[in-house]
Amino acid sequence: MATSRANEILPVLEQDIVTGKLTPGTRLDETVLAEKFGVSRTPIREALNRLSTSGLVEIRPRRGAIVAAISVQDLMNMFEVMADLEALCARLAARRITPAEKEALRAAHVDCHALSGTENFDEYYVLNLRLHDLLYKASHNSFLEKQVCELRRRLSPHRRLQVRIPGRILASSNEHGALVKAVIDGDAALAEKLTRNHVAIQGERFTDFLATLPSHYLQASA
Amino acid sequence: MATSRANEILPVLEQDIVTGKLTPGTRLDETVLAEKFGVSRTPIREALNRLSTSGLVEIRPRRGAIVAAISVQDLMNMFEVMADLEALCARLAARRITPAEKEALRAAHVDCHALSGTENFDEYYVLNLRLHDLLYKASHNSFLEKQVCELRRRLSPHRRLQVRIPGRILASSNEHGALVKAVIDGDAALAEKLTRNHVAIQGERFTDFLATLPSHYLQASA
DNA sequence: AATCAAATTCTTGTATACAAAAAATCATTT
DNA sequence: AAATGATTTTTTGTATACAAGAATTTGATT
């Protein structure tokens, strides 16, 4: 698939950043990475350049690359946009979702809901992602889908761990229930509103998110 | 400012694409560009790589780079997202705009409105941009502002010329009037709604936009 | 001992060299 | 003359070499 070395290296590096294996602020030494991947510096530089455009890496001229460190303010801003784009997805999905997609969405919700009683956060995290992915897809706007996914990827390195508040799964799942119903019923306005609340910057979700922030966010700013 | 050659070349290339000097589909030969800029291929490749991530350039493995050619479907998708992000800007601006920004917005509208009677499309284009930029800024969400601007840049190479329909300036300016008032009055819901209509995919604006599309959009797809 | 300056080392950025793949050209065959 | 296949030429992708700017270390001075 990936024909060039750079194209193979890029997703690996990206994954390491997104999953938090490489934390924000970490220096990305070209020579070290080159050795690690068994290539010369050239393809490494290519990958880092691309990552810098997408915002995951920050390149300071003549001073090397680091995993992008962003401020709480930036994070709130990104979350605000994320909520809006997700709401747009829901609105469009309510208008454009196909019967097959309805079925898949229902199934994804059932899977999520099965964990309602439990505190199985890791598994819920995955199933929750899948449900949201289905909503993005159902918007039938591939550009929007790509933007939302990229933004989510960009946010993910900044959650150190998933929210682990008792009862959160149940609450989230109930919100999903209403949202899924609105989308399937074709109620665009309701789907949009429910999504806004679900991801809202004022709501629990974001507070939860802030609560999981590593302490270094409380001081510095890029 | 731009310390490296690549950092100097990137904006030039970007500008050439955005302004339509380099049209979608044009091959970007590394050697030719290297000669033109008086550098080796290395910084050229760096710039092209970065442009590929932001979507202005498409790099096909082993087959070189071209100015990104996108389908009408993609364009409609991007416009749909653009409308939504602009609406978000307006909503946030209505809540967060400062007195100084109100004044600037009013002034920008006055400038726009001065051209209402005329058919001075070129000048109106610039003033219209300025007014919208002020709205982005007034959202006080720098990430959102950046996203909207980038999306606009990405859309711009695909309008061959500005819409030149008689009376369009007057209509646009009137819409601005209502929008500016809503923002200044702090009516977020109205500001959002007016913006949606102003940029709406269903509305005149997008139809105008489609009408200016170069003919090659009518056939192919990437 | 602390601080500042000079020199050294290390790292980034660019150029060049080389290898491999794609495109183009040319010859051969039907 | 058209089509197909082999050969040449271009062009991309990677490695290496080199230059210039940071960072660090060392040494001198207060």
UniProtKB/TrEMBL annotation, chains A, B:
Gene3D superfamilies recorded: GntR ligand-binding domain-like (1.20.120.530), Winged helix-like DNA-binding domain superfamily/Winged helix DNA-binding domain (1.10.10.10)
Q: Where is the signal peptide?
A: none
Give the matching CDD domains: WHTH_GntR
Q: Where does the HTH gntR-type domain start and stop, copy by copy?
A: 3-70
Q: Which PROSITE patterns match?
A: HTH_GNTR (PS50949)
Q: Molecular function terms in GO for this entry?
A: DNA binding; DNA-binding transcription factor activity
By what name is this protein known? FCD domain-containing protein
